Amino acid sequence: MRQLLLSIILVFSTLGLSSTAKAEEISADNMALLKMLDEAVENKDLYQETRKQRADSFRMEAHRKTGYDRIIDLQQSYETFNRFLTDSVFEVLNEIKQCPEYETDRNLKLWVALSEARNYGVMGLYSTAFMILDQFDPTNYNRDIKLHYYNTKHAISGWLADFATKSAPEMAKDLKKEATQYYDSILALEENPFSRTLVRCNILFENGEYRTCIDTLLAEQERCHPGARIYLYALLADSYMNIGDIENSIKYLALTSIHDLEEGVTEYMALPILAEYMNDLGDNERAYSYMICSLDDANTCHSSLRTIEAASIFPIIEASRSETEEMKKIYQRNLYVWGTIVILLILICICFYFYEHHRRIVLLLDQEKKHVNDITFLAEHDELTSVFNRRGGKRIICKALEKHCAGYLCTLDIDLFKRVNDTYGHDVGDKVLNIVAKQLMGLDNHIVVRMGGDEFSTYCMSKISKDEYIKQIEKMFDSIKAVRLPEMGDNEISVSVGAVFYDGSKDISFDQLFTEADKRLYMSKQVKGCALTIL
Length: 535
Hints:
Helices cover 69% and strands 7% of the residues.
């Protein structure tokens, strides 16, 4: 598939369309955001590797468990892979199907079927997705399954409407109307306040009340959970585009794209639209870089809609890099461009058809590859807690430092851990280690490492302020203290943390940062209780 993508790019590089650049300037604030986006594009592979490692950690942890604890970890792995690696999504769902609980739990079967339908929708197999959804009668299900059903039906109808916009506008209009009608059902079931606000803002947007939509979203911006900001930014970008505010459109498209690259493929149209803006403003290098990144994401996700949308824009971006004389020749080949696109899409469908029918042939190779990956995983992960061990964690953090990725390195150890082992036994000590590891894995965009014994280390690559980082650590403190082990009675688990911020401006080694963080850990240990000391 990657070779086919390169062929598409090569064809478009010779057959693209042209666009006239406009001599407009970008504000200093937006230019700073674009530079942050450039860095995110450059580090995309690192972000995706971290995300895949996290999904695999949940998956490996599930293999150590039974019952619904196993299913919960597999569902977390599914959520991490979702709309990022579609093949891995199906693998995780198939593992859930092998669990004994799947045969007896009707709600679990419904959840898996809806998740499969959503994944088929991501891949552009809309008829298969709707065939699954048509078997559902939402009136007979519990609230969670109903909400999952209506969200899935709304999403797939919207994607199909986007797919049909250019080739069948009337059908696209009906599909868009059908997608919108599910908002009332979602509102009736959704309990999360921000999600309800987001649905209402989508209704305002569909009704053309863009100013009211913008005012509502801006009021919610500070209260919005970091993981949900991408949806808020994307809707703000769409609203500003519809009222002709280019400056704010660029701002929120850039913020959407940064979150997209750091946290996974979600709002896929932000980067191509931003590429169009850059092309119109005469910044051809950025336009080309963003477009290549978007095409690569579409290929990674096996998303046909993303490929079509990006491929339809790519000729415009590429044409701006050509000489004027060559542009005139390209204009004469426009008909051939679209004929080539159709042929390439047919070839993609044929490749996918043969891929499905030859899956059994490559099954042994896939199993061997999985075996090698499992060995690699075990070599770099701690057997007890499933987080990175010292060797694996140090390797991936060093890669981030070599690329000058700014972030926070912290060292952490468990207070009075020897007393826990001596008093309650090593089995209880192991439970305490797993509790701390699980809370650390819950931190957004953190690389978690067990350095040895009761000592852990993390590296946070998110673009957050010191205050936000401190809030994350304090929230982690509260989560750890809230856990009670029956063997320990009323005794709390507490940890001490030392942290240091690296701004990415100069070369620095892992050992240098670790030494500084360790000094702060020693200061925190003097406080005796959950404490953080940060430089």
